[in-house]
Amino acid sequence: MKLKGKVAIVTGGNSGIGKGIALALAREGADVCVVGRNLERGNQVVQMIEEIGTRATFIQADVGDEEQTKHYVAETVKKFGAVHIMVNNAALIHQALVVDLKVEDWDYIIRTNLRSVFLGSKYAAIEMIKQKQGGRIINVSSIHAAISEPQAAPYTAAKGGIEAFTRTLATELAPYKITANILAPGATYTELTVPMYTPSVKEALYKRIPLQDIANPEDIACGAVFMASDESRYMTGARICIDGGYEMDGSLPGAKYWSD
User: What is the topology classification, in CATH, of domain 7-242?
Assistant: First the structure.
């Protein structure tokens, strides 16, 4: 119960990694506001959290909209009395070559994946500063902030922007004892990614990832729990990468570097 008495907001919390994070925070005692677009799935996550034994609510919102962001933060404070943990997780991906990419598709992904992180961080931080109790902001990036993902330029641009933004945010909020950190998942099974993991893609990933596996949302959520807890109190502007070794490994798949 590392988070007993804490209140968390998780955007994109009705599916995938966000759902895994929302449930993990609840298991550690946090009350959770789940923010997302899909009402049915959002209410299902709320029910799962309540069955764990903590309080939860779902707010349907467009996370790229300023007024709706103000609303979900204000409603969280109204219902639970405070906000201590902000997890900016909501994200979409659009696959197209840069030369074929429509400007409106670029703008939509940047709005959903990057602008939303700015808005969520800003309005959660305003509440945390008023509360004078510190706080935790966790921004979910990706290994693809650092390494290429073809046909996903707006997605990778947004993730790179999240990481640069979070470092600046961490500096500005440090005087208030509010930490801001980056969680960077690697290949993870979610509703968003499962269609992309064709047999050939999975075969290639198993060759490329040292641990030869693809994560589940629960694997990523462990990092969020740590960042949300007092155990991470002396860490800010930092990045935790949970990717089975994908990003760090520069070896050639199948190459033999040592003799038996």
Answer: Rossmann fold (3.40.50)
